[in-house]
Amino acid sequence: MSAFRNLSAKIAAINARYREPRIEMSRAVRVSLMVLRVYLLALVALMVYKFVMIVTQG
Q: Cα–Cα distance between 58 and 51 in angstroms, integer?
């Protein structure tokens, strides 16, 4: 259990360090990143849908 606690403490420290971005992002960059997030979520949703369709038909 101590290894798990060490790992979670390291992850918490990394998250705390990078909570605030160090660089300024323009509006175009923020919009582009949001579009990429939506695109990736759509791809994951399509893969899950395809998996469910294959499993239910087979």
A: 11
Q: Which residue has the tokens 């849908």?
A: 49
Which residue type sits at 10?
Answer: K
Question: Both tokens of residue 4?
Answer: 């798990």
3-class secondary structure per residue, 14-58: HHHHCCCCCCCCCHHHHHHHHHHHHHHHHHHHHHHHHHHHHHHHC
> What's this model's pTM, rounded to 2 decimal places?
0.59
Distance CA 48, CA 33 (A): 23
Phi then psi for residue 55, to 5 deg, are: -65, -40
- Condensed to tens digits (0 to 9), the pLDDT of residues 31-56 reads 999 999 999 999 999 999 999 999 99
